[in-house]
């Protein structure tokens, strides 16, 4: 594999020895079901074939030493295997430190330091889950190299804990679940309330999924993501004064509409309405995909974006410009933002023979209206985090 061979050469140059193991963890797209995961609803993500690679070897010391080809100017970041405090100077290596910390707390000790060299081809800040990819990459690496007995769900939950408690981002479990459990040509219909899931084949016939990157960085910690979560929690608390529910995901649209007067402000009502309707859309969309009704699936994608734009207000001019341009193109079944929003990426399901025209037309319109170009990739659905074998 060309990518791994390149990393092996860089590893020897930076660490002075040959790596012994190679790993990959994907990024993810969410086909539908946005901002439902922390509201106890359904999501419908899949892993993609772009992601994060690592090569590694034990180093015989008590130091973890990490180097990223994405940030070569930083050089090697190192920390003692007993150091489990977040430190700003450790930068991106804090993700690895967090995984190590929570593995130790779960009773899995690291006995020897490891040299790790990574490179990711997920665009930075694109909303395709580069952080979850890194968390699960480090998780499977430590699992293999330390011969740990772990269930995959354990690693997924550790990744989420790193995101929430170590890095301070109040996200749900969808990203880590998709990265950890993904399978080629398969999407995962996940009930985030119970973690029960169904694997559903993604059969697009003569269509492809195109990822459209706004090139506007979406930094979760600095965004209004946590604010949206708090608004949903406030709406839920008001509904709980009458309804015996633990999450907005438990409501169908009829019950929500019947009790909407319990919510005190229009803003909270809109946030909760998105959580409820998006959850119902996701369940319906999975059924449509299973039955091969791609047209209906595409229409639900469009409705999802409108709800995210109007009720949840997390799109912004860049995402709206891309999606609305996509809607106007021939051969497009549906398009929507994917991920947390506030920048990042959108996706569209496009007829294969319209792909070049689609990219040209949407790209031209976006650059004309926004002032800089978008990026486009054909999304291939791949496996979850794993060790790579020759």
Q: Would you give an account of this structure?
A:
By secondary structure, this protein is of the alpha+beta class. It folds into two domains: 2-201 and 383-388, Ribosomal Protein S5, domain 2 (2-Layer Sandwich), CATH 3.30.230; 207-379, GHMP kinase, C-terminal domain (Alpha-Beta Plaits). The chain has helices at residues 2-15, 93-105, 130-145, 152-166, 174-181, 225-239, 253-258, 266-290, 294-310, 316-327, 355-370; strands at residues 21-30, 42-43, 45-58, 63-68, 77-80, 114-120, 186-191, 197-201, 207-213, 332-338, 345-351, 375-379, 386-388. Strands 5-4-6-3-1-13 form a six-stranded mixed β-sheet, with helices on both faces. Strands 10-11-9-12 form a four-stranded antiparallel β-sheet. The protein has a three-stranded antiparallel β-sheet with strand order 2-7-8, with helices on both faces. The longest helix has 25 residues, at 266-290. It is globular and about 65 Å long.
Quick recap:
The protein has 390 residues and is α+β, with helices and mostly antiparallel strands. It has helices at 2-15, 93-105, 130-145, 152-166, 174-181, 225-239, 253-258, 266-290, 294-310, 316-327, 355-370, and strands at residues 21-30, 42-43, 45-58, 63-68, 77-80, 114-120, 186-191, 197-201, 207-213, 332-338, 345-351, 375-379, 386-388. The strands form three sheets. It has a six-stranded mixed sheet, with helices on both faces.
């Amino acid at each position: 594999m060309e990518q791994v061979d390149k990393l092996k050469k860089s590893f020897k140059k930076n660490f002075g020895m040959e790596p012994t193991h190679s790993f990959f963890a994907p990024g993810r797209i969410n086909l539908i079901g946005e901002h439902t995961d922390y509201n106890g609803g359904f999501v419908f993500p899949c892993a993609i074939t772009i992601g994060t690679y690592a090569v590694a070897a034990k180093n015989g010391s008590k130091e973890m030493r990490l180097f990223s080809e994405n940030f070569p100017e930083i050089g090697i970041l190192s920390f003692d295997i007993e150091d489990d405090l977040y430190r700003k100077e450790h930068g991106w290596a804090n993700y690895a430190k967090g995984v190590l910390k929570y593995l130790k707390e779960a009773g899995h000790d690291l006995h020897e330091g490891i040299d790790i060299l990574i490179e990711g081809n997920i665009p930075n800040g694109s909303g395709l889950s580069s952080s979850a990819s890194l968390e699960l990459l480090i998780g499977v690496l430590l699992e293999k190299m330390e011969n740990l007995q772990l269930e995959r769900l354990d690693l997924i939950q550790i990744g989420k804990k790193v995101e929430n408690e170590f890095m301070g981002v109040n996200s749900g479990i969808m990203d880590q679940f998709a990265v950890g459990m993904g399978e080629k040509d398969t999407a995962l219909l996940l009930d985030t309330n119970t973690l029960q899931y169904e694997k559903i084949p993604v059969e697009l016939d003569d269509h492809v999924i195109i990822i459209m990157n706004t090139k506007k960085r979406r930094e979760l910690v600095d965004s209004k993501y946590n604010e949206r979560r708090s608004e949903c929690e406030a709406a839920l608390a008001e509904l709980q004064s009458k309804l015996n529910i633990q999450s907005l995901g438990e409501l169908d649209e009829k019950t929500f509409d019947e009790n909407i007067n319990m919510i005190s402000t229009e803003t909270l009502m809109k946030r909760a309405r998105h959580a409820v309707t998006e959850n119902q859309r996701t369940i319906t969309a999975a059924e449509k995909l299973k039955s091969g009704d791609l047209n209906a699936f595409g229409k639900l994608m469009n409705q999802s974006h409108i709800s995210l734009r109007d009720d949840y207000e997390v799109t912004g001019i860049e995402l709206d410009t891309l999606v609305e341009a996509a809607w106007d193109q021939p051969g497009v079944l549906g398009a929507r933002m994917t991920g947390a929003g506030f920048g990042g990426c959108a996706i569209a399901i496009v007829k294969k023979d319209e792909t070049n025209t689609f990219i040209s037309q949407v790209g031209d319109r976006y650059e004309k209206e926004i002032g800089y170009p978008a990026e486009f990739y054909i999304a291939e659905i791949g496996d979850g985090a794993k060790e790579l074998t020759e």
